[in-house]
Amino acid sequence: MATQHAQLHENPKGPGDLRPTAKQIIENEGLQGKLSGKVAFITGCSAGVGVETAKALSLTGITLYLTARHLDKARTALGDLVNSDRFLSKNECLNILICNAGVMQPPEGRTKDGFETQFGTNHLSHFLLFNLLRPALLAGATPDFASRIRLPGCDPIKTANLYTANEIERRYGQQNLHAWSVQPGAVLTELMRHLSDDAQGGLRGDPYLATIFKTPDQGAATSVWAATARALEGQGGKYLENCQIAKEWDPESGFFGPGYGHHAYDTAKAGELWEKSLKWVGL
């Protein structure tokens, strides 16, 4: 699916170039003030892509519920937009769930439930959150305004997230609940803080990456597009990047080239992961 936003990604020039920002997505979709009465829940709003996603969606008039590990940082970045509370005690309906929180190559460790830190944080926590909020997402869904879920797809756990989005689509798509796995791109945020200085230097010094790196507000564009674009209404279960439904990866494009691997839409493995994840999170 080619879009006007996708065309701006064809010849990237580096952070701050002509590739769209999250705010521009809202403006181009004509959604300023148009989502009053709807509700969105966004995780990972201390900094980076989460902050920019929240700022952009706030322009629509939607009610925002935001989570953050570091509330002081969130308050500094978002001001009056910070409104963390017990969601289900206040809302029976949810229209948009954006699972943005995550870690990247943290020091070796385990969650309190014994799972490897990155897998537990980037997959199982999102899986559990979706299942807890699923009744509200289904309650908020209508044929004219389906509920949408954005799962991350920007780290070594992205296959699990993609499988989860695909399985949500198979299980709940007919009930107007759709999920997307989103690759925000190579974004200059704090996500790389656990990488060694040499590793960070290698990434920042790569000539190809230098052209495709994005600012946080550009990195939030695909997430916001996934959550709001009219072109995606009634669809789900696909991998998005650069404000478009991604095509299969071409090896000639290089290691960092766009696209998904041949295993991405394996329904058997997605179903197996779903069943195992249910057991792992105690559902």
Short description:
This protein is of the alpha/beta class and 283 residues long. The protein contains eleven helices and seven strands. α5 packs parallel to α6.
Describe this structure in words.
This protein is α/β, with parallel strands linked by helices and 283 residues long. The chain has helices at 4-7, 22-28, 48-58, 71-78, 117-140, 158-172, 197-205, 207-212, 216-219, 221-228, 267-280, and strands at residues 39-42, 63-66, 96-98, 147-152, 177-183, 238-241, 244-245. Helix 2 runs parallel beside helix 3 (48-58), helix 2 (22-28) packs parallel to helix 10 and helix 6 (158-172) packs across helix 11 (267-280). The relative contact order is 0.16.
Q: What's the overall geometry?
A: globular
The overall strand count is 7
Could you describe the largest sheet, including whether it forms a barrel?
7 strands, mixed
CATH superfamily: NAD(P)-binding Rossmann-like Domain
Count, helices: 11
Residue windows where pLDDT falls under 50 for at least 5 positions: none
CATH topology: Rossmann fold
| N- to C-terminal distance | 36 Å
Summed over residues and divided by their number, the pLDDT gives a mean of 87
What's the number of domains? 1
CATH architecture: 3-Layer(aba) Sandwich
Oligomer: single chain
GO molecular function, one term: oxidoreductase activity
InterPro entries: NAD(P)-bd_dom_sf, SDR_fam
Keywords: Oxidoreductase
Family: Belongs to the short-chain dehydrogenases/reductases (SDR) family.
